[in-house]
Design goal:
Elements (H helix, E strand, L loop, with lengths): L9 E3 L11 H5 L2 H13 L4 H4 L3 H15 L5 E5 L6 H10 L12 E5 L4 H10 L5 E7 L5 H17 L8 E6 L4 H9 L2 E5 L12 H9 L4 H16 L5 H6 L1 H14 L4 E6 L5 H15 L7 E6 L8 H6 L4 E8 L27 H15 L4 E6 L4 H22 L9 H11 L6 H12 L8
Parallel strand pairs: 2-3, 2-4, 4-5, 5-6, 7-8, 7-9, 9-10
Antiparallel strand pairs: 1-10
Helix pairs in contact: 4-9, 5-9, 5-13, 10-16, 12-16, 13-16, 17-18
This protein binds 5-phosphoarabinonic acid.
Length: 454
């Protein structure tokens, strides 16, 4: 891309440091193989995340919910964890930030993605049940953190609203399987389906993230439009090696894999759009849970500009030389107020300037400092930081993650390593079976320990 580019949204590869990534040419040559795999998986219905075959029906459902159901509520209490929560939170922080600002009177979204007894109790004792919609999101329908909360929240609704409790529940879960689906069938609770093969961290642009977006009055159609404009070409039956090579997600994927090959094992995501800082957490889960496999991967390091310039940035700049960076910024932010005329002489350089000029100046300073510290860096620069741009970015990073995983030779849509901890926790709670886990737990908790007071 040249300085005179007319593109509104740009990936700037100037400082990607290809010359330090010797495996990049061989990875680039795999475009044909990856294009064929994409075509096969799309044809087999394995990648609804990219093809979005569910979208037409969902758009209709969302329009109905928006017209008749969501306006009844002032609060939404979202129960979900991981991919069932992080996309919604990122969208909320970016496009409905009012709840974090003084004087908020509009709608509120409360996301409970932990098993924190204090927080759950506080929400249930302070939220008015009659104005609250509980949105339970779980693809499997069995996740203990989400279902554990659901049991208590359901009791609360039944106690507070004996006649109407079901009308205050909306479940988003698998169409056939899982405990939540059973609940929906048994009690006739309103549901939205999580389509087959749409895994949690790839599902933000489905009912998982779009229902909260619609509830908060976001431009969810813009999100979908942006998402499909980037994801759609990858699902096109005419995709071939040449077209894939020109798709930014493939370029990002081969950069990501070549970085790992060259020992860059940490990937900073520096967001210089302050309200978008939770996208860094969304991406961290997407990248880490998808790619941390078989001793491979790179650790995502979420960071927010300018705040983290005074925190972890010293390590980015002068710690181990194993870091790369995705630097996200926008062409133009708000101007902000003018600085007052009567500032002390040492701040003379701010005379005649506005508060909004600090952020881009500091972004440039940090981006350049990272480049000068030899951190391979790609800048994602958005013309506008609106919903459509967010949809584009989410499709780009989602697809790039998937393709990076394929280049690594791992499965980017599962997460087998996290299962052990879940089984051990269940064993600890006395679940049936799990005899080996119970024996291992006993050995782990009763063996000799090196514990010292401090
Ligand atoms: O990305 C993933 O697949 C996971 O993080 C899941 O979203 C998370 O484990 C929650 O799963 P579920 O939606 O089945 O409750």
């Amino acid at each position: 891309m040249t300085a005179g580019s007319t593109h509104q949204d740009v990936l700037d590869w100037t400082n990607a440091c290809w010359d330090r990534l010797p495996t990049a040419p061989a990875l680039r040559a795999r475009a044909g193989e990856i294009a064929a795999k994409l075509a096969a998986e799309i044809a087999g219905g394995k990648l609804p995340f990219l093809a979005t075959p569910f979208m037409a029906a969902l758009e209709k459902d969302l329009a109905d919910l928006e017209a008749k159901y969501l306006p009844k509520f002032r609060h939404m209490l979202l129960l979900g964890i991981g991919g069932s929560a992080l996309g919604a939170r990122a969208l909320q922080k970016a496009f409905a930030p009012g709840q974090d600002l003084p004087g908020h009177t509009g709608k509120s979204l409360w996301i409970l993605d932990n098993v924190d007894a204090t927080s759950l109790e506080a929400h249930l004792s302070r939220l008015p049940a009659k104005d609250t919609l509980v949105y339970v999101v779980s693809k499997s329908g069995d996740t203990i953190e989400t279902i554990g909360q659901y049991f208590l929240v359901k009791e609360w609704l039944k106690r507070e609203l004996p006649a109407d409790w079901k009308d205050h529940l909306l479940l988003n879960t698998d169409e056939q399987k899982g405990y939540l689906r059973q609940e929906a069938t048994q009690f006739g609770i309103r549901t939205l389906p999580v389509p087959d093969n749409l895994g949690g961290r790839y599902s933000a642009i489905s009912a998982v993230g779009l229902v909260p977006a619609a509830f908060l009055g976001m431009d969810w159609r813009g999100l979908v439009r942006g998402f499909q404009s980037v994801a759609g070409p990858l699902a096109d039956p005419g995709l071939d090696a040449q077209k894939l090579s020109q798709h930014p997600s493939f370029e990002f994927a081969l950069w990501g894999k070549a970085l790992m090959d060259a020992g860059y094992l940490e990937l900073i995501t520096f967001f210089y759009i302050p309200a978008w800082c939770s996208f860094a957490d969304w991406f961290a889960q997407l990248w880490a849970e998808s790619l941390g496999k078989d001793g491979q991967g790179s650790q995502p390091l979420p960071a927010v500009g300018v705040t983290d310039q005074h925190s972890v940035n010293q390590m980015f700049l002068d710690g181990p030389r194993n870091k790369s960076c995705l630097f996200v910024e926008r062409a133009q932010g708000p101007e902000g107020a003018p600085f007052p005329a009567d500032m002390p002489a040492i701040f003379d350089y701010l005379q005649g300037k506005r508060f909004g000029e600090l952020l881009p100046a500091e972004a440039l300073g940090t981006r350049m400092a990272l480049c000068q510290s030899a951190v391979p860096l790609v800048a994602l620069r958005l013309g506008k930081d609106d919903a459509e741009a967010a949809g584009k970015m989410m499709a780009l990073l989602g697809a790039a993650t998937l393709l990076t995983g394929w280049l690594m030779g791992i499965n980017p849509v599962d997460q087998p390593a996290v299962e052990l901890g879940k089984r051990l926790a269940k064993a600890r709670l006395g679940a049936d079976g799990l005899e080996k886990e119970k024996a291992d737990l006993l050995a782990f908790t009763t063996g000799d320990r090196d514990e010292r007071g401090f």
